[in-house]
Amino acid sequence: MTSPSSSSSSSGATPARVDTLEHPALADARDAIADGIDREALVTVFGRCTVDYDGRASSHLESGDRHVMLKPDGASLVHTDEGQQPVNWQPPGCEHSVRYVESGAEAGDDDGPTDDPSTPRLVLESDRSTPDERLRVSFSRIFQVSAFAGSDETELALSGTEEDLRQRILEEPSLLESGFTPLATERSTPAGAVDVYGEDSAGRAVVVELKRRRVGPDAVSQLRRYVDALERDLHADADVRGVLVAPSVTDRADRLLVEHGLEFVSLEPTAD
């Protein structure tokens, strides 16, 4: 049974267009997918399929119900009903193609546990030339095909980053403590780059490690390595303080801070 539907929106510079087929015949699905690829639409396909990758390595997924997304920039993603990451994918720059074949054997499929190898298949491929690799998805049944054509000219604006946290301290050093003077950012040490380096009101060196989220023992260990590295770099009598700045720390991290003589300042990346 084939149930086509189409809708559009006049908002924005380019009217959005959505074309959907539910439970289409494989030949009809092929035509809809080919049209979407030609129009540089975002194409999604949900159905029963096997998935094969050949390139720098090789992999095979037996037959299962999966959601495949073909993006106009050449990226392709295969999702199951679990997790946020695709089970297989290709990066932008690939060439998408679709074809209808009379049998799974013709498509090059390994027989799945429930699929008849003599049944027709719809085959999606995303090919990349450098390096040479191919993602092939072979459908025995398709439940839905959609093609979405629209526009998105905006760029992602990140907030709440470690850079936001750094800027807050540089613009208002007293957020760390009264009398703190920032001297450098990304100061190089043998253990890595220190987020903010400065001096306190007594002239002691201060190493500031920034984290935008609640942190655990790893962040404390990282700060300890920076402090140890700077103490070796500076003169023998140098007194180097280490301050971890984050919204919060775990109980174990708090105990380690005390054990190593390090300090903690609770601060959010943004003032809101």
TrEMBL record:
One of its GO terms (cellular component) is cytoplasm. Its EC number is 3.1.-.-. Pfam families: NucS_C, NucS_N. Its main location: cytoplasm. It is found in: Cytoplasm. GO terms for molecular function: DNA binding; single-stranded DNA endodeoxyribonuclease activity. It is an enzyme of class 3 (hydrolase). Residues 162-271 form the Endonuclease NucS C-terminal domain. Residues 1-20, 104-130 are annotated as: Disordered. Keywords: Cytoplasm, DNA-binding, Endonuclease, Hydrolase, Nuclease. Gene3D superfamilies: 2.70.180.20, 3.40.1350.10. Residues 1-11 have a biased composition (Low complexity). Belongs to the NucS endonuclease family. NCBIfam families: PRK04247.1. Cleaves both 3' and 5' ssDNA extremities of branched DNA structures. HAMAP family: NucS. This is Endonuclease NucS. The gene is nucS.
